[in-house]
Amino acid sequence: MTANRVQRLSRSLAIFVPLLCALLTPAGAVGQEPIVPLRLSFSDPGARSMGFGGAFVALADDATAAFANPAGLVQLAKPEVSMEGRHWDYSTSYAKGGRVEGQPSGFGIDTRVGLETARSENTITGLSFLSVAHPLGKGSLAFFRHELANFAFSGETQGFFGGGTNCCQNRFFDQRMATDVNFVSYGLSGAYRITERLAVGLGAIYHETSLTSTAEVFLPDEDPELGLLAPTSYFAERSYLSQHLFADDTDWSFTGGFLLRLSNSWRIGGVYRQGLEAGVTVETTAGQANDLGVSPGTLVNRITGIPVQFPWVLGLGFAYRAPDGGLTVTFQWDHFQYSTIVESPGLEDVTVDDTDELHLGAEHVFLRTTPVVAVRAGAWFDPDHQVRSTGDDPFARALQPRGDNEMHYSAGLGVALQNLQVDVAVDFADPVNTVSLSAIFGF
After folding, report:
1. pLDDT tens figures, 87-96
2. What is the CATH number of the domain that holds 226?
């Protein structure tokens, strides 16, 4: 490829701001579009709940009810302590490079038709839930700690191209990204039995939000023949700028639930959880290859106080338990108001759908064994809630596409002694596999 032909390539550099790890561009920033997804988990705590496929709101019959449905705390006959550890194995798909439009020129790294995807593989293990619950006559109180989200991502791109093949080509310069998300909640829940059949519960939750996302933009390697079609080797001297998003914030929210026993075998339960809000800050620093008249690493732009409202959740479930207690079948519908994520900061040209999750699970208890053993299985439908572009920019449309619906399948095993119950469960899906181990102590 001749040097003159390279000079006809577009030299414009688009800069992105990684908001909420989906890299949503706030007002005032120069736009380049999102690459990194953000994965939140709003599943109920406990391996027993996971074994049911997350359909637990109409059962809520142990100390994990402090979060899942506080009304269920009235079912406790004695004080309980619940602990859970989880292991997450994330496999997060993202766009790595390729053509967002047009045909490849065949020079340099511009040889791929369509987009190339890659996966970020990350594993996390931690204490995901802890609660102490105590019955008090017709009521109960419980304190809990819960990890609402624990997620990590890392990746790098290698050449996004658009435009024609002979002139005026555009390149989305490459990025090296890393994201860590940890939402921890502390709550106090209480329940009261209004009648023999109806109980209600309320809870106050204190949230600690820790979110960091760093993306560093690099220029392609210096090559007099290939120019913008050269590969990116991520040399420090080719760093153009870095953008760092972080949220270290706290907030309060409330939750409420009910549990209604329709008959000895049928129950219905519901819960509402208010979404937390966090203030986000975005900082931009100069790189070695960016001649802004300042030293590399100097802060050149800072946007603070971007309000982000995370989804509120509404759940409703039914449960059937056989008269002998050997079989339990549960179903749960959850509605998530994901649109608040993009509406609260006033973002334009992006959207995300509100979704409805469907959960189904069953348990068979071997009542004649000592100790008592239970086996569980479940499945749940996780519809697409990926932030996507609604604008005309081809890079935005390619890098912010509609996501995929996912099916999760779960299985679990429980062993119950006189004062101790131990449960283990697994949940399998394409983007994440989860293993849970929990124990409930009664005293």
Report:
1. 999 998 888 9
2. 2.40.160.60
